[in-house]
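Case study.
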Amino acid sequence: MRVLVAYGSKNWSTAGIADMIAEALAAEGLEAEARPADEVRAVAGYDAVVLGGALYNNRWHHAARRFARRHAAPLAGKPVWLFSSGPLDDSADRTQVPAVRQADAVRHALGAREHVTFGGCLTDQAKGFIARSIVRNGRGGDFRNPERIAEWSRKIAAELRHTAESR
Ligand SMILES: Cc1cc2nc3c(=O)[nH]c(=O)nc-3n(C[C@H](O)[C@H](O)[C@H](O)COP(=O)(O)O)c2cc1C
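After joint prediction, the assembly is written out as follows.
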């Protein structure tokens, strides 16, 4: 089984989550690769897709939205999971942070199996004045939770194995 983990990321922390997911899927015996959503030309060669986007001002990263639009037809026939990364605190670990409107619309459009929100990350390397002033004011940090990300990935692997067995 080949799984694509496609992501839209501005400051590379969502890319890091995508890498963690691909690694965890590979550890479960699946063939998985993480790629920037903008660089994916076709999804035909994949059996399943995980699509993630960073959150900025309650919007899902444009590359994730564009990917969902561009590949809507082939994705309709595949198992799809979605994630967002954003909250710069532990709220994503404590509660189920609902999908923003755009991600929820993609979930419906693609019939995705699930959407989850993971904590985000913002460091003084981030692009943009606002981002750096958030960090300067002590509200940055790395709130990604590798264990939770791996756990979600293992659940995806289990569902895919189940799908393959029942074929
Ligand atoms: C200007 C700005 C706006 C943001 N807006 C949101 C938001 O609406 N919701 C949220 O959960 N996180 C928000 N964040 C936090 C980012 O989503 C977080 O830093 C994320 O990890 C960035 O992903 P990236 O490194 O892949 O670009 C914002 C960060 C910045 C700098």
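Observations recorded in class. Residues 58 and 100 are 6 Å apart (CA to CA). Residues 2-165 form a domain with the Rossmann fold fold (CATH 3.40.50.360). We will return to this complex in the next lecture.
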